[in-house]
Amino acid sequence: MDYNRILAEIAAEIEPLRNEGRQADYIPALAEVNPDRFGMCITSTKGDQIEWGDVEERFSIQSITKVFSLSMALSIMGEDLWERVGKEPSGSAFNSLVQLELDHGVPRNPFINAGAIVVADVLLSRLDRPQEQYIEFIRQIANDPSVDYDRRVAYSEREKGYVNAAIANMLKYYGNLNNDIEEVLRFYFLQCSVEMNCRQLSRAFLPFADRDKKFSFGNVNLTYSQVKRINAIMQTCGFYNDAGEYSYLVGLPGKSGVGGGIGAVYPGRYAVATWSPRLNVKGNSVMGMKALELLTTYTHESIF
Ligand code: GLN
What we know:
By secondary structure, the protein is of the alpha+beta class. It is 46% helix and 13% strand. The chain has 13 helices and ten strands. The chain has helices spanning 3-14, 28-31, 65-77, 98-102, 113-126, 130-142, 151-159, 162-173, 181-192, 198-209, 224-237, 243-249, 286-299; strands spanning 39-44, 49-53, 59-60, 148-149, 194-196, 215-217, 220-222, 254-256, 261-266, 270-275. The strands form three sheets. A five-stranded antiparallel sheet has the order 2-1-10-9-8. Strands 3-5-4 form a three-stranded antiparallel sheet. Helix 3 crosses helix 11 (224-237) and helix 6 crosses helix 10 (198-209). The two termini are 19 Å apart. The relative contact order is 0.20. The mean pLDDT is 97.
């Protein structure tokens, strides 16, 4: 398959969408990013990279980090994790407060904000040096020691993080947060601030696609079956209330972030990352989703 040609075709075909959607601005630092960007990179299980566009510029991967956070928490807690957070699609916005109240403080899944805030609480309780160990794991999975937090983005989000603060307060009220609310939020915002470019992101998703290598990065070890299940949660919950649409159009387990990035996997073959900051109303990258839809359409490669 000539992936270089396919990526070029995709880039041409999504061009008319250039001005559709709006970049996230509820995090002030993200409003400063140039929205006219598009990058796409595939990393195969053999290690080859095929890329197009803005693949070197780093962006805030935001909720994509929820995949890494879940990986760490599952490795530490195993199945006990599911006593504190569910694994059902939410059908609601990623930052829904109403749903959390209806569910009595047990978030639907680890990929919405409420779920990821519980996961951050778990990591805070169980890691000796949470901030260091978290970024260390991400550097290992991305195979790149230069990956880091962008503390400016974390502070910026914290300053305006009213809804997430409300979510954390409600979790505490229902007895589903063990640590201090401010500490959990600080760690959660820091996680969301991790920066990567498309090359690094597709590389960091590769272990979720690779069926031959053990998922083992320092203290984070997952069985084949656990990796398969993380992919299942990406498929059903990775795009919030857009998960059905994304599954219908794309057919690859994936996770989006409000920085405009998407990481996805074609199990056994490759991981793919896209980045374009303009989002649809559900908080998912317009050009990124279209590019992945065209990728699976042109290649006939999807999990279905
Ligand atoms: N940091 C963002 C928030 O908590 C992450 C949301 C996202 O990427 N969907 O609102």
